[in-house]
């Protein structure tokens, strides 16, 4: 069910439960600002999700409300995860679905990292 990214944060969403340790995940990286873990249904040889520790529905919510330190910490975490996994060369793709047209499914901001093969055109036609 696509997410309405303008709704208030729902702390029962699946990634909130992962952050609270209520359901398991395959963690790749964790720091003060972010948790990175493998997507349960990978769309590429590497498919990692990076989420902020704070309660933000979407990229829109995060970019509007998060503090500078949270934003810096999260963005650096995304870069570090991809770098440490060796994806800077030959390359990787970031995706942050926001709202219904994007098919966002989980109402906690997540950045997808796709890598491990040539990723093809940017969007399905
Ligand atoms: P969205 O469509 O919201 O951008 O992406 C949501 C992603 O979360 C999907 O790629 C989906 O496979 C992943 N996902 C959904 N539930 C879980 C879960 O319980 N664990 C993990 N690791 N990934 C999940």
Outline:
This protein is of the alpha+beta class and 125 residues long. The protein has helices spanning 14-19, 59-65, 68-84; strands at 27-30, 34-38, 46-52, 92-95, 111-115.
List keywords for this structure.
single chain; alpha+beta; HIT family, subunit A; five-stranded antiparallel sheet; 3 helices; 5 strands; binds guanosine-5'-monophosphate
Helix content: 10-25%
Q: Say what the CATH topology is.
A: HIT family, subunit A
Output the structural class: alpha+beta
User: What's the count of strands?
Assistant: 5
Largest sheet: 5 strands, antiparallel
Principal-axes geometry comes out as globular
Q: What share of residues are in beta strands?
A: 15-25%
The hetero compounds bound to this protein are: guanosine-5'-monophosphate
Q: At CATH's second level, what is the architecture?
A: 2-Layer Sandwich
Strand order of the largest sheet: 1-2-3-5-4
Task: Output the CATH homologous superfamily.
Answer: HIT-like
Order of helices and strands: HEEEHHEE
Structure annotation, total helices: 3
* C-alpha termini separation: 22 Å
Radius of gyration: 14 Å
Topology diagram in text:
Layout: H1 14-19, E1 27-30, E2 34-38, E3 46-52, H2 59-65, H3 68-84, E4 92-95, E5 111-115
Bound molecules: guanosine-5'-monophosphate.
Description:
- By secondary structure, this protein is an alpha+beta fold.
- It has one domain: 2-Layer Sandwich (HIT family, subunit A).
- Helices cover 24% and strands 20% of the residues.
- It has a five-stranded antiparallel β-sheet with strand order 1-2-3-5-4, covered by helices on one side.
- The longest helix is centred in the middle third of the chain and has 17 residues, at 68-84.
- The two termini are 22 Å apart.
- The model has no long low-confidence stretch (mean pLDDT 96).
- Bound molecules: guanosine-5'-monophosphate.
- Residues 14, 25, 37-41, 97, 103-106 line the site of guanosine-5'-monophosphate.
